[in-house]
């Protein structure tokens, strides 16, 4: 079950990142974050009311608040990096943030078996190679790498925080709702400040209504991925769940290849294969 939910997480995050990167090429990253997370918060609010999840409120929700503060910063940096592109290079670099939840799991006493350790090493190497390392080039590329690294450790922190925010399904709905509300508030304040400084909140001053379904998909896929990750982390070792969930860049790279015709180099194809091998080792270890 850990492997199943963690792999679902990687699929959802990969598709959400692909959509978010595309949208950020058409609208400011802050606007994409605020609108997509606002839609997710609205849907979660309805679920919280319908399930009576308010009864699960407690001190653990502070972890969700912290995740909500860190999340928009990580998303903003990542979407900007994806807009600078290419996605097949930027996205795999984001996996270095897996060190945060894996480190937490080890500190809490988790000790993966030999097969799982091998799977972790192979999967992480595969994901990095799937990006076809390109660390040389113009200043724009270096900026994309810096933004990606900041986002990666932010995502890693969110991984660790949201896993501590709930222990039940209804509690998970409440924690994700609180996280999204804080996301929207923090992102909204940042957007307001940006507009006050002269930046545009909307392309050409008009809201692109045609992108609303895509914005909804990005927000809902992102929140669903958070939910499946929490379930995966509670079902089995955090070290395994975090590594399998971090395979989302492979999904983003494949989507970029399929829809944007971004060409995969030999090293990227080999990396995708290694990531699959690592996944199998983790699932069977």
How does this model look, in words?
- The chain has 285 residues and is mostly helical.
- The protein is built from twelve helices and no strands.
- The protein has helices at residues 2-24, 29-51, 61-84, 87-93, 99-107, 114-130, 139-163, 169-196, 212-235, 238-245, 248-260, 266-284.
- It starts with a helix and ends with a helix.
Number of strands: 0
- Rg calc: 18 Å
Shape: globular
Summarize the helix and strand pattern as letters: HHHHHHHHHHHH
Nearest-integer average pLDDT: 80
Let me know the largest β-sheet: none
Q: Briefly, what is this?
A:
The chain has twelve helices and no strands. Helix 2 runs antiparallel to helix 8 and helix 9 runs antiparallel to helix 10.
Offer a few descriptive terms.
12 helices; mainly alpha; 285 residues
Write the topology of this structure.
Blueprint: H1 2-24, H2 29-51, H3 61-84, H4 87-93, H5 99-107, H6 114-130, H7 139-163, H8 169-196, H9 212-235, H10 238-245, H11 248-260, H12 266-284
Helix pairs in contact: 1-3, 1-9, 1-10, 1-11, 2-3, 2-8, 2-9, 3-7, 3-8, 4-6, 4-11, 5-7, 5-10, 6-10, 6-12, 8-9, 9-10
